[in-house]
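Researcher: Batch entry, complex prediction.
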Amino acid sequence: QQQVKQSPQSLIVQKGGISIINCAYENTAFDYFPWYQQFPGKGPALLIAIRPDVSEKKEGRFTISFNKSAKQFSLHIMDSQPGDSATYFCAAIDFNAGGTSYGKLTFGQGTILTVHP
Amino acid sequence: DAGVTQSPTHLIKTRGQQVTLRCSPKSGHDTVSWYQQALGQGPQFIFQYYEEEERQRGNFPDRFSGHQFPNYSSELNVNALLLGDSALYLCASSSGPNQPQHFGDGTRLSIL
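Model: Structure tokens for the complex:
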């Protein structure tokens, strides 16, 4: 019930294309869903996040779509660039005090994105 | 404004030894969480410290312990190292247990 399942494992996109990464969760106590971007040799960097009371959040070329009833959320990268090539992780966390998953991020398995020039 | 800083960046130990990793949170943050990231995997939560106490713990044995100091910095200690402990250890800080977490670049621990 604590798992977050992420797909695809790897993704190759041409420059200017749209990259789409999907995640699904089981724990309905999760109430904050961030996406992290990780480059080789670096720690994960917070990219964008959403709470379940909205269905979509956009920041620049990055958009999160959230479907609460299906317990799914996805990251869309518009106009993908070679500099976007990295590993992307979805995550979920329960910010309500007292929950068993309170304060701990549960990560998906990661998606290696390669954007060809 | 310095982000989350971790030391050392790399460390090599042998089985059975003990190791201490250190983390300084981002300015203004008072909560520190530790994660283990195996190669090709997502980070796994070890524990979280707030107000100098362990507030939440993941599925890690008692060989993994930690501490938080009054200046909010933190240490992760691992005893009786096993080959399987080889991983990237990440520290994340936040401005409270229920706030977004920001990660450092980690300590790469290799066990021989």
